[in-house]
């Protein structure tokens, strides 16, 4: 880990799709972010955040990357609980999704997500957005904007 | 002709408070040749309604005057209680007013007692039963169509939505391979990867557009008074970069307030203006958005100075996956105008093109103006 990423040292990635987990880890690694913890479902994510069960010795993450459709406890519930918990509510949460639906974006904003990023993630883009946004909601669309017309 | 012994008798419910009239009706039916009737007689409103709700008779004959009650009310109440069977209203004195009221209440026919013979009564019953049967068939077909339509829409949505995930995985990893191992691969390998990436990109565009197309039907909002000017503003803002790069010159008439789903109206303008930018002839695009009010309706159009369209393709271009040009020169999925058509049709309007090759094109559609906004 280098000095330049010290502010985003610990990332909790909450994602159930193994291909997406690995891909996100790989691109984060390309950007010298190595401290990525992975939770495979919402329940595990909450255990991690509350440092329960096997997660008693984990750090408080500096950023949560959250998929919305998760087994057991879904991403929306995880986010709601983070925002409702005093020690956790200041953690930036970036929602990762494949949906570019206007409604989904608005919903993410209402749920007090910090940032909304479309998969596949472009780490540089979203880290910049997080830095700049200073807690304000941002949409990061890593896919090129396509011609609207066929 | 004797009654057909094979045919089951036609079951009749007569709701009639006058016994003499009951006897007359019974005699008329028994005089009918070739058909057997099995009649049940009830002499008051409540019993009539109870029997009608059971829906076991082939035909209902209802008297207009039922000892202080109104036969029309009985018909209305039976219809409201989902009694769908054919009903004929019998009355002592025929007048056109009552006839029309009976029709509106849901009666199949209206007969003046004392003025008809048995063959006329038989004919009226036969027509009422047949029309009822046809209406039932039509309704079943309509329901089956609506069901299959809803299923298809759902299928299109789910299929395109679920196709995205694996495609995204393929495309992400192919790009990761390219990024990480480019220096270790030869030119051929890099070219192959390029084709794979391009293929996934095109498929992603197709899926996105198919999703947009299916959302027009499944995710539409209620139509409400919507200022076309604001929808156009939004669409131009969304086209920002493409507009600037093309150097397009946009002119616009003041547009009316119409009944619309605003996000869809925005998408409609965006697709049409986007096309006007894309299909340019070499000069900087000149695009004019205009409006022709026409009573409660208005025709809105987007005119350009682009390459134009041969009128023989005027219909085809609105179908899904129809492209007139090669993908290299004018990229796109061939779904944009199909989305436009679906949006306009969902708004109860029509979309068409007026154009000649080399002379630009005007895409026009009509929409209903919002109440009180006709004279804008």
Q: Which SSEs are present, and which pair or pack?
A:
The complex is a heterodimer of chains A (about 150) and B (about 375).
Chain A: E1 11-14, H1 18-30, E2 36-39, H2 42-50, E3 63-67, H3 75-84, E4 93-97, H4 102-110, E5 115-118, H5 123-133, E6 138-140
Parallel strand pairs in A: 1-2, 1-3, 3-4, 4-5, 5-6
Chain B: E1 10-15, H1 19-30, E2 37-42, H2 45-54, E3 59-63, E4 65-66, E5 69-70, H3 71-80, E6 87-91, H4 96-105, E7 109-112, H5 118-181, H6 187-218, E8 224-227, H7 228-238, H8 240-246, E9 249-252, E10 257-260, H9 262-278, E11 286-294, E12 297-303, H10 336-346, E13 351-355, E14 361-368
Parallel strand pairs in B: 1-2, 1-3, 3-6, 6-7, 9-11
Antiparallel strand pairs in B: 4-5, 8-10, 11-12, 12-14, 13-14
Helix pairs in contact in B: 1-5, 2-3, 5-6, 6-10, 7-9, 9-10
Description of the molecule:
The complex is a heterodimer of chains A (150) and B (376). With 150 residues, chain A is α/β, with parallel strands linked by helices. Chain A is 35% helix and 17% strand. Mean pLDDT of chain A is 80; it is low at 1-6 and 144-150. In chain A, helix 2 (42-50) runs parallel beside helix 3 (75-84). Chain A contains 5 helices and 6 strands; from the N terminus they run βαβαβαβαβαβ. Chain B has 376 residues and is an alpha/beta fold. Helix content of chain B is 49%, strand content 19%. In chain B, the strands form 4 sheets. A 5-stranded parallel β-sheet of chain B has the order 2-1-3-6-7, sandwiched between helices. A 5-stranded mixed β-sheet of chain B has the order 9-11-12-14-13. In chain B, strand 13 and strand 14 form a beta hairpin. The longest helix of chain B has 64 residues, at 118-181. The N and C termini of chain B lie far apart (70 Å). The A-B interface holds A 17, 19-20, 23, 26-27, 30, 98, 100, 102-103, 119-120, 143, 145-150 and B 164-165, 168-169, 171-173, 175-176, 179, 204-205, 208-209, 219, 238-239, 241-242, 263, 267, 270-271, 274-275, 278, 323, 331-339.
């Amino acid at each position: 880990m280098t000095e330049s990423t010290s502010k985003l040292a610990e990332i909790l990635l909450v994602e159930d799709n193994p291909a997406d987990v690995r891909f996100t880890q790989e691109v984060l690694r390309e950007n010298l972010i190595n401290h990525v913890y992975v939770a495979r479902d919402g329940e595990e994510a909450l255990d991690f955040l509350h440092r329960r069960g096997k997660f008693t010795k984990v750090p408080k993450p500096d950023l949560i990357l959250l998929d919305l459709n998760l087994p057991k406890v879904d991403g929306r519930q995880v986010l709601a609980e983070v925002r409702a918990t005093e020690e956790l509510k200041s953690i930036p949460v970036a929602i990762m999704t494949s949906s570019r639906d206007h409604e989904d974006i608005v919903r993410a904003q209402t749920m007090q997500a910090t940032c909304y990023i479309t998969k596949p993630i472009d780490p540089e883009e979203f880290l910049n957005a997080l830095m700049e946004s200073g807690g304000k909601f941002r949409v990061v669309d890593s896919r090129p904007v396509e011609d609207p017309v066929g | 002709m004797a009654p057909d012994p094979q045919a089951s008798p036609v079951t009749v419910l007569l709701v009639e408070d006058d016994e003499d009239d009951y006897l007359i009706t019974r005699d008329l039916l028994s005089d009918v040749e070739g058909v057997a009737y099995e009649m049940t007689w009830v002499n008051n409103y409540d019993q009539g309604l109870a029997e009608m709700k059971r829906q076991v008779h082939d035909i209902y004959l209802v008297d207009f005057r039922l000892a202080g009650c109104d036969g029309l009310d009985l018909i209305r109440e039976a219809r409201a209680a989902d009694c769908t069977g054919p009903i004929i209203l019998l009355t002592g004195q025929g007048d056109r007013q009552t006839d029309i009221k009976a029709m509106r209440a849901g009666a199949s026919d209206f007969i003046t007692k004392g003025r008809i013979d048995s063959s006329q009564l038989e004919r009226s019953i036969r027509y009422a039963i047949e029309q009822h049967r046809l209406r039932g068939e039509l309704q079943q077909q309509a329901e089956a169509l609506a069901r299959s339509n809803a299923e298809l829409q759902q299928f299109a949505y789910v299929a395109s939505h679920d196709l995205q995930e694996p495609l995204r995985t393929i495309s992400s990893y192919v790009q990761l391979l390219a990024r990480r191992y480019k220096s270790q691969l030869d030119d051929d390998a890099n070219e192959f990867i390029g084709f794979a990436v391009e293929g996934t990109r095109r498929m992603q565009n197709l899926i996105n557009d198919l999703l947009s197309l299916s959302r027009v039907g499944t995710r539409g909002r209620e139509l409400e008074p919507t200022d076309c000017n604001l929808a156009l503003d939004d669409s131009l803002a969304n086209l920002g970069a493409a507009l600037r790069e093309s150097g397009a010159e946009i002119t616009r008439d003041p547009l009316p307030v119409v009944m619309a789903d605003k996000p869809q109206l925005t998408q409609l303008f965006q697709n049409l203006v986007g096309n006007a930018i894309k299909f340019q002839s070499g000069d900087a695009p000149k695009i004019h958005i205009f409006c022709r009010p026409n009573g409660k309706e208005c025709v809105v159009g987007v005119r350009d100075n682009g390459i134009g369209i041969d009128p023989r393709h005027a219909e085809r271009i609105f179908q899904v996956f129809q492209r007139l040009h090669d993908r290299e020169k004018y990229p796109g999925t061939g779904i944009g105008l199909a989305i436009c058509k679906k949006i306009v049709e969902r708004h109860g309007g029509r979309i068409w093109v007026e154009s000649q090759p080399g002379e630009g094109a005007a895409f026009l559609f009509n929409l209903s103006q919002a109440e009180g906004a006709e004279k804008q």
